[in-house]
Design a protein that fits this description.
The structure holds 2 protein chains of 2 kinds. Chain A has helices at 11-36, 52-62, 91-99, 105-134, 151-154, 194-208, and strands at residues 40-42, 46-51, 67-76, 80-87, 139-141, 145-149, 166-176, 182-190. By secondary structure, chain A is an alpha+beta fold. By secondary structure, chain B is α/β, with parallel strands linked by helices. Chain B has a 5-stranded parallel β-sheet, sandwiched between helices. The longest helix of chain B is centred in the C-terminal third of the chain and has 19 residues, at 108-126. The chains are: A alpha+beta, B alpha/beta. The A-B interface holds A 12, 15-16, 18-19, 22-23, 26-27, 29-30, 33, 39-40, 42, 44, 130, 134, 177, 204-205, 208-209 and B 10-14, 16-17, 20, 56-59, 83-90, 104-105.
Chain lengths: 209, 127
């Protein structure tokens, strides 16, 4: 947690945020498991408040190879971007897991964009919906968009110049138990949301006592 | 009958949620909290709990691994794994380890049913 952040989260608030993400991603994995009929393994989520630059550098470090990301933007009381990211080289294997092994390579290639968008939609929506419901707030969630590129590019897309430099960066690894597919779910919360998030987490903690 | 309950979850908020449900059901039951499996073992080595409630996705040993370990150590301990990760494989592994599976966030109803079962099994074992 960096000291430059105006509205810092307390230890318990950060704990609550991590648990929210854990709930969201666990729900999401349970939905994805139904789609691919195979167990999805998850890491323990990491939630940190960092500068946008640090978040981007973090993604760049993890993978310098070409990546595919499905992202959905959300706004409402909280705004930011949720991404499902995996190596471009694994993209076909992921699609195969979803559509089955029987299709020809041609068919699979044709279905790739759609299958990726749908996977992202299921995972990210389940995750965001859990977070929104637990905080008792509604989030507007955009349609999924599939982008190809490097990790450093995925978070650099925010248009508004008055968005703060600090972000909440959330990160979880996932893999399939018996297929060679790994990736991660990342989420970036814009800092103008932080004061609101702090009060929503405070209310959640209050309700849990 | 009073049972000693050990709650193991890396999230304090999640432990608070379990304590809240426990307070509503059995305010007089003694409870201990731990943030991971190793911390839990320190408690267990001092005094054996009757019931252990385990989170699945924790740093260090996960709840399923720890559930199996606990049941092997002493099958009298009633163990439940609490997780929002309700994949069939997770539920199956909990059951294979001799643990119950409860969906997270845990409800008073689900926790109450689990306690009732645990008490029944214990009475069955001693009578």
């Amino acid at each position: 947690v960096t000291g430059s952040v105006a509205v810092a989260l307390s230890e318990l608030e950060l704990d609550a945020m991590t648990e929210l993400v854990n709930l969201g991603v666990s729900n999401a994995a349970s939905s994805l498991r139904e789609l691919v009929r195979e167990e999805i393994l998850l890491s323990v989520p990491k939630v940190v408040v960092v500068t946008r630059k640090e978040a981007i550098a973090n993604l760049g470090e993890r993978d310098s190879k070409p990546l595919v990301a499905v992202h959905q933007d959300f706004d409402g009381d909280l705004r930011g971007r949720a991404l499902l990211i995996f190596p471009e080289a694994k993209s076909m294997e992921l699609v195969r897991a979803i559509v089955g092994n029987d299709l020809s390579l041609e068919d699979i290639m044709e279905l790739e964009q759609e299958a990726l968008a749908e996977t992202g939609n299921i995972l990210l929506n389940a995750c965001l919906a859990t977070i929104a419901n637990t905080l008792q707030r509604t989030l507007r969630i955009s349609l999924p968009e599939v982008v190809h590129g490097l990790g450093t590019e995925f978070f650099d897309l925010t248009q508004s110049p008055n968005l703060g430099d600090s972000v909440i960066f959330i990160y979880i690894n996932f893999s399939f138990r018996s297929r060679d597919v790994q990736g991660y779910i990342a989420m970036l919360l814009d800092l103008p949301s932080l004061a609101m998030l702090k009060s929503l987490l405070g209310a959640l903690i209050e309700r849990t006592q | 009958v009073k049972c000693k309950v050990l709650i193991v979850d890396d999230s304090k908020l999640a432990r608070m949620a379990v304590v809240k449900a426990l307070n509503a059901l059995h305010p007089d039951w003694p409870r201990l909290e731990a943030g991971n499996a190793d911390e839990a073992l320190e408690h267990i080595n001092q005094e054996l709990p009757d019931i252990v409630l385990l989170d699945f996705n924790m740093p260090g040993r996960d709840g399923l691994t720890f559930a199996a370990e606990l049941r092997q150590r002493d099958p009298r301990i009633a163990v439940a794994v609490i997780s929002a990760n309700r994949q069939v494989e997770v539920i199956d592994r909990a059951q294979a380890a001799g643990a119950a599976f409860l969906a997270k966030p845990v409800t008073e109803q689900a926790l109450g049913d689990f306690f009732e079962n645990a008490l029944k099994q214990r009475q069955g074992a001693t009578s």
